[in-house]
Design a protein that fits this description.
Blueprint (H helix, E strand, L loop, with lengths): L1 E7 L6 H4 L2 H8 L3 E7 L12 E2 L9 E2 L1 H14 L4 E11 L2 H7 L4 E5 L5 E2 L9 E4 L9 H12 L9 H11 L13 E2 L2 E2 L9 H23 L1
Parallel strand pairs: 1-2, 1-6, 4-7, 5-6, 5-8
Antiparallel strand pairs: 3-4, 9-10
Bound molecules: adenine (ADE).
Length: 224
């Protein structure tokens, strides 16, 4: 079983997404465990405060170093070889390759921040800083959920058909998926490409590869 831990002020954020579809089944089948650690439990004051104003002034509040580091230590105690990932917009960008790398680790711990961010000294206690994309979320939780979902579906025997994993290895090379169609054959004048109805598997495979390449080239051009 692959062990994951989430350090968060909002464990309830994860309840619903983990009770749906593939993550739900993976947890039920003991392919993955997801354990939340409440950062607030490590506050060292009676009001359980975990945030404070930034030195030097400015808007917003920051996650304090002491409770976050104590929560990270608890995570490392529970899973001694865990790889601790801090979710932050200033981290390196997440992608499919990262998801594949993470599931090879013994365990992954995802650290979610709220407020304007983390006290910079926390960085010394994590193994990596990761961003979901070039935009600012109101907390690390939605980013952590995406990372978790991307990892879970890659775990052995989680996806229904073994072919899905083969398709993943295709996207892993940096290529996008090809276009898909299901019934009906015609919808408001739009038809399914004839090759997909031909029954010629070699031709279908060639068409799919060509379409994947074409899409990938178009995406690159658009993103330049
Ligand atoms: N926290 C806030 N914004 C984020 C982002 N884009 N990626 C990861 N963590 C975040």
């Amino acid at each position: 079983m692959f062990h994951t831990q989430i350090l968060t002020l909002f464990p309830e954020f994860f309840t619903s997404p983990l009770q749906c579809s593939i993550p739900k089944r993976a947890i039920a089948d003991a392919k993955v465990s997801v354990d939340c650690i409440q950062i607030r439990d490590f506050a060292n004051n009676k009001h359980q405060k975990v945030d404070d104003a930034p030195y030097g002034g400015g808007p917003g509040m920051l996650m304090q170093v002491a409770p976050v580091v104590a929560a990270i230590r608890e995570a490392r105690q529970r899973q001694p070889n865990t790889h601790v990932v801090m979710l932050t917009p200033s981290g390196t960008l997440f992608n499919q390759q990262k998801a594949l790398e993470y599931i090879e680790k013994d365990s992954i711990t995802l650290l979610c921040g709220r407020y304007e961010g983390f006290d910079e000294r926390i960085v010394d206690y994590v193994d990596e800083q990761l961003s979901l994309g070039e935009y600012v979320l109101s907390g690390g939780e939605p980013a952590a959920m995406c990372v978790l979902d991307a990892m879970i579906r890659l775990l052995p025997d989680v996806l229904g058909s073994p072919e899905s994993a083969v398709l993943d290895s295709f996207t892993e090379q940096g290529l996008l998926d090809w276009p898909h169609y299901t019934r009906p054959e015609v919808f408001e004048g739009q038809t399914v490409p004839a090759v997909l109805l031909s029954g010629n598997h070699a031709k279908i495979e060639a068409w799919r590869k060509e379409q994947a390449l074409l899409r990938s080239k178009q995406r690159k051009k658009r993103d330049l």
